[in-house]
């Protein structure tokens, strides 16, 4: 059955692979599953046809026969459940990998996104400069905890898993800041993720979309 | 095998059931699974023994034989996977329920928590009153999308599922505000969740902990 995902026709990150379709592309590349991409202009996100697929009007969505999914975490988990290689084979190991998937999206990503969203939406406000250190302190707290857990390990919990796809893509949001500097093992962890051939194929695919996009 | 979860010895919400152990208690009550609770004072959250269970120093954790989990979403999903009644039986329905679990925690909860955290941490700051409408606009956007999806339905996607446990507990964070007033079907949805006998047993159990807690 053909898999079709949605992505931005013209990604606001100019091809840096920060949009959430990157996670899905990476997971599909890891398991060797081909996929089609339906590109959407921003105005299409609020159209009834898209809201029927994604009630919150975002990308990515995932369609495969009768199944339609949204939420990048759920889509990556679905791919990991249907194919070997992205979750441990033992039940306890799988449950732990799922815990790390939720940790990436529910414990680490929100503090990072809060700073990112403030950068877009509140940079012109009088309080922005004063609030920035507060937001960055929260990020450092989480990064410190994550760094302490990771230690010298290659991946979050044993072998590479779907949780690493989510955590690496979450941490990459900080690449353009200096926040990762004091957590060297996290920088090396991101680099390990990006060095995987599946990551590189996924990155190149989304970059090709940006390069082909109508000038914005 | 005995299930042991962790919870606050003295919950900061004074027994209103807002701490994340409530989600786990509710799920376990829905499937009729008994459990033990290990109560932790706040200072224990940063001790090595607890950080080994929960790398981010939070509650709840979940222990069952050799398995140790953290992240309330992952714990609820683990319970739902191991027992009948909290996920549809067909594979596509299960994948959709998981999508709604991630939506509750990754799309709806962060905007609600940002406002809640600002209330705790920034209420004394000069910008608090100016930022409040910005934060509330983001919440209304998400609530409006959720309300449009729910319509007249009882639950998020067909029968009651683990996703409703997460979404109801997320939305309950707004009960003490007026933000839900303009989304009447969401208020009714929360009320349906709270009317379930399993919810009530879980609520009473966490309230009993608060009432028995040493005066703080």
Short description:
Chains A, B: It comes from Shinella curvata. The first copy, chain A, has 216 residues and is α+β, with helices and mostly antiparallel strands.
Structure description:
Two copies of one chain form a homodimer. The first copy, chain A, has 216 residues and is an alpha+beta fold. Chain A has two domains: 3-85 and 198-212, Glutaredoxin; 91-196, Glutathione S-transferase Yfyf (Class Pi), Chain A, domain 2 (Up-down Bundle), CATH 1.20.1050. Helix content of chain A is 55%, strand content 9%. Chain A contains eight helices and four strands. The first copy, chain A, has helices at residues 21-30, 48-53, 72-82, 91-121, 128-150, 162-172, 184-194, 197-212, and strands at residues 3-8, 36-40, 61-64, 67-70. Chain A has a four-stranded mixed β-sheet, covered by helices on one side. In chain A, a hairpin with a 2-residue loop joins strand 3 and strand 4. In chain A, helix 1 (21-30) packs parallel to helix 3 (72-82), helix 4 packs antiparallel against helix 5 (128-150) and helix 6 (162-172) crosses helix 7 (184-194). The radius of gyration of chain A is 17 Å and the shape is globular. The two termini of chain A are 34 Å apart. The mean pLDDT of chain A is 96. The interface between A and B is large, with 46 and 46 residues.
């Amino acid at each position: 059955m053909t898999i079709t995902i949605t992505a931005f026709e013209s990604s606001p990150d100019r091809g840096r692979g920060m949009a959430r379709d990157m996670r899905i592309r990476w997971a599909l590349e890891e398991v060797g599953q081909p996929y089609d991409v339906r590109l959407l202009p921003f105005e299409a996100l609020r159209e009834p046809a898209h809201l029927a697929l994604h009630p919150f009007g975002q990308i990515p969505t995932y369609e495969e026969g009768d199944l339609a999914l949204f939420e990048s975490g759920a889509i990556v988990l679905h791919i990991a459940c249907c194919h070997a290689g992205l979750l441990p084979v033992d039940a306890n190991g799988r449950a732990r990998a799922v815990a790390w998937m939720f940790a990436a999206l529910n414990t680490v990503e929100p503090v990072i996104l809060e700073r990112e969203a403030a950068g877009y939406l509140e940079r012109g406000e009088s309080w922005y400069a004063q609030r920035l250190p507060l937001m960055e302190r929260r990020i450092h707290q989480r990064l410190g905890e994550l760094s302490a857990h990771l230690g010298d390990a290659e991946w979050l919990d044993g072998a590479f898993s779907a949780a690493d796809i989510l955590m690496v893509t979450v941490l990459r949001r900080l690449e353009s800041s200096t926040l990762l500097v004091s957590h060297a093992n996290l920088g090396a962890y991101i680099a390990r993720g990006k060095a995987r051939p599946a990551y590189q194929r996924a990155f190149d695919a989304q970059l090709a979309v940006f390069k082909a996009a109508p000038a914005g």
